[in-house]
Write a structure and sequence with these properties.
alpha/beta, Metallo-beta-lactamase, Chain A, 2 domains, 5 helices, 16 strands
Length: 253
C-alpha cells in the first residue's frame, strides 16, 4: 500500500471509529437519561398526621387531606373517613380541579360536596392506570364509650393504591385487625401508631410483621416515639422502616 493509501485508510478508520464512539456515547447518555427520568418525581410525602401526597406516573394524589401544605392540584383525592382530621373540606377544595377524582366512604359525600365516588370495603375503582381498592379499617378495642368504638366497622376504609406496578397501603384509622393478614405484596404500608384512636406502636409492629411490606412509614403518631416502632419492626423482619418528618418525602424505587 502506498503512503497516500495508508494515510487515507488510517484517516477514514479514525473518522469511522470516532463516529462509532460518538454514537455509543450518545446512546449511553440517552439510556442513562431515560433511566434517570422514568421515576423522577415519583415519591410519597408525609404531610403530617394521616395526610400524604403521592406523585407517581404523572399523577398527584392526596390521601386524607388535613395537615401540611397543599400546593399542587390533585388528580385523585382519597379520604378514609369523615372525621375532620382526615376529611378537611377546605384542604380538599384548595387542590380540587374540575376533573379531580374524589373517592370516599358514603357519609363523606355530602360533607365534601360535588361529584364524589362512594366506596366501601371490597370495592375497586380504576382511575386511568391507578387502581384504588378499599379495605376494612375499624376499632374493636378502642371505644368512646362502652360499646361505641371510635371507628366502628363499616364507618371508614383503608386503601390499597396500585400504581406503577407497586401497591401502597394506607391503613386509615384502625386497630390491628384480622383482615390485615390477607394483604399481600405490599410495597409500602402507611400505618397509624399513636394509640388512643388507633393502633399503638406495639400493635403497629405486629400489623407490619403480619402484612410484610417492603417498606413501612408510621403515621398518625401523636406524641409517641417512632423509634420504638422502627426498632420493633426491624428487629423481627427485613422490613425497612422509614421515619419521616412532616414535609419530608420517600422516593419510590
Amino acid at each position: 500500500m502506498s503512503k497516500k493509501g495508508a494515510f487515507y485508510s488510517g484517516k477514514y478508520f479514525k473518522v469511522a471509529l470516532g463516529i462509532v464512539l460518538a454514537v455509543a456515547v450518545v446512546g449511553v447518555g440517552y439510556f442513562a437519561y431515560q433511566a434517570s427520568t422514568v421515576k423522577v418525581g415519583d415519591y410519597v410525602k408525609w404531610l403530617g398526621h394521616a395526610s400524604f401526597q403521592i406523585k407517581a406516573e404523572g399523577k398527584t394524589i392526596y390521601l386524607d387531606p388535613y395537615e401540611g401544605e397543599y400546593r399542587d392540584k390533585a388528580d385523585i383525592i382519597l379520604v378514609t373517613h369523615s372525621h375532620a382530621d382526615h376529611c378537611n373540606v377546605s384542604k380538599i377544595n384548595s387542590v380540587r380541579k374540575s376533573d379531580t377524582i374524589i373517592i370516599a366512604p358514603a357519609d363523606c359525600v355530602s360533607k365534601i360536596g360535588g361529584e364524589v365516588r362512594s366506596i366501601k370495603p371490597g370495592d375497586k375503582i380504576l382511575v386511568g392506570d391507578v387502581l384504588v381498592e378499599a379495605v376494612e379499617a375499624y376499632n374493636y378495642k378502642r371505644f368512646s364509650s362502652p360499646g361505641n368504638p371510635y371507628h366502628p366497622k363499616g364507618f371508614g376504609v383503608g386503601y390499597l393504591l396500585t400504581i406503577g406496578g407497586k401497591t401502597i397501603y394506607h391503613a386509615g384509622d384502625t386497630d390491628s385487625i384480622p383482615e390485615m393478614q390477607n394483604l399481600k405484596n405490599i410495597y409500602l404500608a402507611l400505618l397509624p401508631t399513636g394509640g388512643t384512636y388507633t393502633m399503638d406502636n406495639q400493635e403497629a409492629v405486629e400489623a407490619a410483621l403480619a402484612i410484610k411490606p417492603t417498606y413501612v412509614i408510621p403515621m398518625h403518631r401523636w406524641n409517641t416515639d417512632p423509634a420504638e416502632f422502627k426498632t420493633g419492626v426491624e428487629a423481627g423482619s427485613n422490613i425497612k422502616v422509614i421515619l419521616l418528618t412532616p414535609g419530608e418525602q420517600f422516593q419510590l424505587e
